[in-house]
Amino acid sequence: MSNIGGISGTSTAELLKQKSRVEESASGNIDFAKHLQSALEEVNELQEKSENAMADIATGQVKDLHQAALAIGKAETSMKLMLEIRNKALSAYKELGRTQM
User: Fold this and answer.
1) Which phi-psi region, left, alpha or beta, contains residue 6 (left: φ > 0; alpha: ψ -120 to 50)?
2) What is the pLDDT of residues 18-36, one digit of tens each?
3) What is the distance between the alpha carbons of residues 41 and 48, in angstroms, rounded to a whole number?
4) For residue range 39-50, what is the model confidence (pLDDT) as tens digits?
5) Cβ neighbours of residue 7 under 8 Å, at least 6 residues apart?
6) What is the C-alpha separation between 20 and 101, in angstroms, rounded?
7) How far apart are CA 35 and CA 27, in angstroms?
8) Fewest CB within a 10 Å sphere: which of 11, 35, 53, 56?
């Protein structure tokens, strides 16, 4: 058996943070705008980590290439998801505008 080292999973603190956000959303304590703002801030943080990882790779200061690649992948995936959410929201807005009252 090979031992896979250096792969970090989601921390317990991060899972608890996500759980509390989901519970707040479900209970109605947080409105949609705040939830959307929180998601945008999270995407921005991932983008900043990705930029730092790319800069470290470019300058040769990277300590763990695998972790840097994971940071870049997470940022790319989160940006794609955010763009799809935006596209769906715009489509829904346009559809509401086309409905007759």
Assistant:
1) left
2) 767 766 666 655 687 888 8
3) 11
4) 999 999 999 999
5) 66
6) 39
7) 13
8) 11
Global pTM reads 0.62
Question: Could you tell me the two tokens for 50?
Answer: 């990705």
- For the chain, domain boundaries: 31-98
DSSP characters for 19-70? HHHHHHHHHT-S-HHHHHHHHHHHHHHHHHHHHHHHHHHHHT--S-HHHHHH
Identify the burial level of 50 via C-beta atoms within 10 angstroms of its C-beta, where 0-12 means exposed, 13-18 middle and 19 or more buried.
buried
Q: Are 67 and 8 in contact (CB under 8 A)?
A: yes
